Amino acid sequence: MGKETGQNFSEAVLRVFAALVVTWGAYRAFGFWYLAAGLKHLSPAAWARFALLAFLVLAGWLWALAPAFLGKILGLWLKIRAPLGKARWLFVLLAAVGVPIAVLWVPGYSKVYAKHSPTDAVVVWAVAYLLAALGVLLFLTEKPEVSLREGLVSLLLPAASFAFFGAYTKVSSYPFALSWSEGNRLWDYSLMFGRSRYIYPAGRPIPAHIDPGRQFLWGLVFLIPGVGIFWARLWSAIMFTVPYLLFAFTAFWKPKQARRAGVFVALWAFLFLRQGPIYTPLLLSAWLILLAADSAPWLGAVLAFVGGYLAAVTRFTWVLAPFLWAAMLTLGAVREQKDFRNAWRKFAWLGSAALLGSLISGSWLVLFSTLRGFLHKMLYGSAALTAHSDFAASQPLIWDRLFPNPTFQPGILLGVLLAVVPVLVLLGVWRRQGLWRLHRWALVLDGLILAAFLAVGVLVSLKIGGGSNLHNLDMFLISLVLLAVVAWRQEGWRWAVSANWRTAERWLAAVLVVVPMYFLFLGLMPHQIPEERWWKPALNAVRHYVHKAQSEGKGEILFMDQRQLLTFGFVKGVPLVPDYEKKLMMDEAMAGNKDYFAKYYHDLAKKRFALMITPVFRIDYQQESSHNFAAENNAWDRWVAAPTLCYYKPIYTEKHLGFEILVPRRETRDCSRLLPVPPSP
Predict the structure, then answer these.
(1) Measured between alpha carbons, how far is 554 from 538 in angstroms, rounded to an integer?
(2) What's the rounded Cα separation, in Å, for the pair 278 and 167?
(3) pLDDT tens digits, residue range 627-675?
């Protein structure tokens, strides 16, 4: 009886907490909609929104304080809903998928967002999410007493839908970049299979600041002749969503008797990995290793080889990940001492193949060079740079990003704790209940692998240019999911299927589902895509100045930014100048590469370029404690913006679209005081 009383009290506290969260969200959304729709003018839209918020708050507090009364209402609802039969699942789908799609793509919503803060817009999304969850619950529940399992599923389905369809909000034919690097990324992707789109000497390679792994995967769409920017963006959205689902459903599709529960756990894994987010090549590599562990030896070796190569050719920091994942899924899954022999045999196939795949990529040279640079920096105070180090060792670490900061609100430490502690606790519960057993040496191996990936992820997150989310913890997050897969496939699935949980376990289940939603809505920002009447004059201006510069013939035309205009033919007939691409310049600025910028300043002084299309340059040195990406901004202003504006001046600026057009200054200026290093050829 005492256990039942404690469980009822725990549920009551959980309901009150949820009602408070709903009330807070409704209050924030009311403030946003009051300004946007004009409740003071009693518009019908404002009244409808007000009624929606009032309904959500009322339902939340009825559930918290009067569950019996709410149960009677639900009982009446079930009688009304009864004629639907199995057709009610169509309404579950409509609420789970239809509401997120409608809110993400509602006409005019981005215009409303543009007038207010992104945080307010996300609050509105959160309210829409609660409405979708309530809709799922109303058509999902089978009894007047809503079970915790039904509540968790109702929260999970629309959250996964928001995470999936949110990636598609950028898909459009809009010609200019939708984010700081998006336009030039599209240019990067095109070079492997779409080189013919550019006016450039046939025998000369076009350098791009991107790894072959991403360039290959994202560049596949350019195998389609004449493919446009809409389809390239659609393919990019697919790359950021479908591989997540492939990995998650492969991971939790076994055992057969837990397949129904495994579907919902896979959706949870999808949300968990979206907390990063994880770059697709690494996720596909992990997927291949997972398939390899379930396959016959020869097929497994082939899959592991491809997984090892794909990871290593994408990022040198991933070079050991497939090999160690193979160890986790074989040696790290051993229960008894007698099982080690078979595990070693399997690991010999998978581990060797994964290691061979990574070795032939050449990334080991970059890894050793970077480690040498870090060691040199620790001993002598500066990094010994080489052509292979990519300047990673020379870039400073920003320790403030460990803690709450403007760049990443919770900070890396708190963010990691929020993301992974519930999973670790659940694994501990399964181990204590005997549902997951590992030999002590297997447990030590798994722990060492997780610790190594955590250390690397935190270190890379602190490097200038990182720390805005958890994506640099990618190897660690995937490894944790793989460990959960091992536990799930043993006996952990029984915990989810039975749902006979104690009070603490019920809280844990709720936290496991809710925490990924924090990161989901933290990173899910609206994208305002301007109408043609706003961007058409800007595109015409670019074409006009490009044509004028070509007719005068006084120099080259540099697209430092907005290179997708060349990729998709929005600007035609311009020879490609691959030098001084914006993303590369940012990396070189963060590394303080004197040789690189000495050549750039020489080209500026000699007026090599008759026209430059650049980001909007504004010299504004910032403090890390008050601005996001302040260190990156300051490096850019010091090494790029200030020197460029000394030699060149803007003749056309479109700050809303994020670019400007520069031409050489006629007057001679003494720029030596602004240059971090003197010009040199």
Answers:
(1) 23
(2) 13
(3) 889 999 999 999 999 999 999 999 999 998 999 999 999 988 899 999 9
pLDDT tens digits for range 315-340: 989 999 999 999 999 999 999 999 99
d(CA 478, CA 423): 12
Cβ neighbour number for residue 606 with a 10 Å cutoff: 13
pLDDT tens string 577-634: 999 999 999 999 998 999 999 999 999 999 999 999 999 999 999 998 888 899 999 9
Judge contact between 152 and 47, C-beta under 8 A.
Answer: no
In Å, the largest CA–CA distance within the chain is: 90
- Say if CB 152 and CB 139 are below 8 A apart: no
Between CA 641 and CA 635 the distance in angstroms is: 9
Q: What are phi and psi of 533, to 5 degrees?
A: -65, -15
Cα four-point dihedral sign 476, 480, 482, 483: positive
User: What CA–CA distance (Å, rounded) separates 625 from 634?
Assistant: 13
Strand-pairing partners, residue 69, are none
Is 364 exposed, middle or buried, given 0-12, 13-18 or 19+ CB atoms closer than 10 A? middle
Q: Model pTM?
A: 0.90
What does the alpha-carbon distance between residue 293 and residue 328 come to, in Å, rounded to a whole number? 10
Beta carbons within 8 Å of 302's beta carbon, 6+ residues apart: 292, 353
**H helix or E strand, kind and range, residue 287:** helix 280-293
- Going by C-alpha positions, the residue among 349, 545, 314, 512 that lies closest to residue 423 is 512
CA gap 396, 116 in Å, rounded: 35
Residues of the chain with pLDDT under 70: 1-8, 10, 28-29, 31-49, 106-124, 369-394, 524-528
Q: How far apart are CA 62 and CA 278, in angstroms?
A: 39
Cis peptide preceding 410, ω within 30 of 0? no
DSSP letters of 578-622?
Answer: -SS-HHHHHHHHHHT-HHHHHHHHHHHHTT-EEEEEEPPP-----
520 Cβ partners below 8 Å, 6+ apart?
A: 159, 162, 163, 166, 271, 274, 275
State the amino acid at position 149 in one-letter form: R
Taking the C-alpha atoms of residue 362 and residue 193, their distance in angstroms, rounded to an integer, is: 22
Q: Write the DSSP assignment of 246-277 as a string of letters.
A: HHHHHHT--SGGGHHHHHHHHHHHHHHHHTSP
